[in-house]
Amino acid sequence: MEPKPELSPHHAYPDHWEADVVLRDGGTARIRPITTDDAERLVSFYEQVSDESKYYRFFAPYPRLSDRDVHRFTHHDYVDRVGLAVTIGGEFIGTVRYDRINEQGRPASAPADEAEVAFLVQDAHQGRGVASALLEHIAAVARERGIRRFAAEVLPANNKMIKVFRDAGYTQRRSFEDGSVHLTLDLEPTEKSLAVQRGREQRAEARSVQRLLAPGSVAVIGTGRTPGGVGRTVLRNLLAAGFTGRTYAVNRAFDEGLATLDGVPAHRSLGEIDEQVDLAVIAVPAHRVPEAVADCGEHGVQGLVVLSAGYAERGSAGRELQRELVRQARSYGMRIIGPNAFGIINTAESVRLNASLAPESPARGRIGLFTQSGAIGIALLSGLHRRGAGLSSFISAGNRADVSGNDFLQYSFEDPDTDVALLYLESLGNPRKFTRLARRTAALKPVVVVKGARHSGTNPPGHAVPVSRIPDATVSALMRQAGVIRVDTVTEMVDAGLLLAGQPLPAGPRVAILGNSESLGLLTYDACLAEGLRPRPPIDLTTAASPQDFKDALAEALADGTCDAVIVTAIPWVGENGEAETGDGEVLAAALHGAAAKSPAKPVAVVHVEIGGLAEALAAASSTAAPRTRPTTLAAQPHGPSGAPAPTETAPREAGEAEGAEAPARPGRIPAYPAAERAVRAMAEAVKYAQWRRQAATPGKVPEFLDETTDEPGTAALIDTLLGATPDPRGRSLSHDEARELLGRYGIPVRPTLPAPDPEAAVAAAARLGYPVALKTTAPHLRHRADLGGVRLDLADEDALRRAYGEFTELLGKPAELLPVVQSMAPRGVDTVLRASIDAAAGAVLSFGLAGAPSELLGDTAHRLVPVTDRDAAELIRSIKAAPVLFGWRGSAPVDTPALEELLLRLSRLVDDHPEVVSVALEPVVVAPQGLTVLGASVRLAPPPPRGDLGPRRLPNY
To answer: Does the predicted model carry a pTM greater than 0.70?
Structure first.
């Protein structure tokens, strides 16, 4: 049991420092502050440390800790003296401590900003990344307490500890003094330290999923004594798939004399098994799960698949049971798939694992599949099997209390057997992390996502994760920005997955259409236009076309440099006797395979109507060549615990690669579709993804001019002043003048407005600003509503202004209700609106659209995650449907889009530099042929929400 923390007399116990982390080998551990109740744990931990490690820690033989040492190492004020421990099963495996010091190296308090730091890791756990994880967390704690530098003394022979500091990525200085290495680390995060942190996170989380999918042994806990039931079904499926490891049946109700069940050893508990079990599948009632988890943890099980239901899907009580399940499993270093899971599958020849309720293990293939729904998982497995597609891996996570889609992306990124990752998601626990991982994975291999529960505004039952308030359209745009192929249905996901897994990426949108039906060709042509592709006129081979005619036409189209992809349409053809032949699909498939195998690598899809055996024959690969690979950092680990190969990185496949590059074998699986629209939609997704991949290869950048024309320190000081010493957690909206000053420090000038509480004040304001002017109401219900008479433009003189003022008050209300203002006129142009807002889950989002009906009524708004690059800004403007208005639609003058892109970059930089700026709206921004004018701005400040993606790595606790 973890100790109940005793409050320090100096500072309350900082429970927000507690964290679950994944270590380098994929196991989990808990990091928490050391308390006064940890004396016995500390002594026990120290006794298990070797004399050499003790010598490295204290620079002298130090066989045991004195009572004074134990008191010192367990009593902290959590400000100037802090100690953290890494625990597994409640016992220490590593510790770290810092003590604040002054310039002379003596104990000190704030404002001293340096601390001495020291680590100690149990020898049995060295090499698991314990010290690296502790350094990340103790550095975050130190920054929170105002410490900016760590100092450490390390013996020259302690190479492991020197490497921990050297590889952390922080700015550091080294010197050799008095026989030891003196290290000083600046704790401000750098691009390198963040990259190191994320790289370690990626490898650890990928490894944790690999341990689940490639176990050397599996125990099914809750295997029934009679046929039927969940546990017995999983055992049967494991055996039917030919699992290469060892399998055990476990049930405490087994008779003592029962030695085997279905041919595998039968045991009443894990303690009766002579070897360590890697994976446990738990299929017992929910009230017995804690007992099973404890048995697993005490006997070294590495991971759990919990099929048992009765958790968060049952309400608040079940949600608390689910949280306790996760806490219990992680305390033993185990990760969980589930609860309420359907199971997992790994088709690798070295594993052949089907630890699921799926009655038939799918064929081996190149598609990885993750789903949060068992029912959807069943449907997807069935659909893929029916269309001849194989899988590399499958995870149905149920309530996804622990292992999530993010973990699956980490694994898929490195898995050499996966070319395409398909995910059905109903909730995003950490959208910011998801988009980051998806962007990196999509740069290597396609990621196709279906998002369920898009419009409910709540999470599905069982998903105990934060609810994001971002509209679904925004989520879709952010996924597109990250290179994710977002589709609406599981059918579309399978359609896209089949094409992407079996065919090369198209080099462009030009599509050749050929077939033996003019009508089907025209339908395909129309569908291409609707999806934004550039189809060539269909080639009609006539209904008398033979398979050889198809082969010749396909070979010619693939060799044509003016097309990037080919869609073949086929109906039953007419034989020599004049009768339709429907059963020769295998012959046509062989002809199409033959043409594709000898031609330049371009994607091919087939639309067919009632041709028996064609889809199955096309799905049969004509080549089994493995994809080309290049080793990654995990290649240094040649085998997992079960002997399975460690992950390597699969090189991206793309048409038009440079000559001399190692070319992949021509893919042999040609996807077939029963409708033209489905084939074309899948091809369109491939075209858009290929374009994203090409652009991602040379990413955009933030122009350097922003560094010269922004005042970051001055803005930070102004924000501190505006928020005050004790800011309201709800935040505050800035006045017009305050907003103008704040935005002006980032080169965003806002045209001034002057209040006009009466006609005389309006005239005085106009005289000050200069005619022509605009008279506007700032009342919330009329703001920006020219259609309701809330704005009067081009008032050229005093008479026009007085007349407009009178009409204002006569038609709309009293001046006190209207809050009218006067503003000088801007050059004519297109009215646009720019917004930036912060979502607690997704982070800062930048939005753009045309002002008025296009964005408000039709939802024609584009979104990007902050920070945006110059390329993001250009794409943001061009991605709305009304974008032609900005570029000279119907003979109008094109507006100054470079100025608009610069404004977007400045706004992005502002909210990225200052997270206290939680909301900005620039409306309207009038973009003229030369320059632009910001006529209105609203800004809201608040204490910044936490940025979990910038802190030390940790597993979420929902």
So the answer is: yes
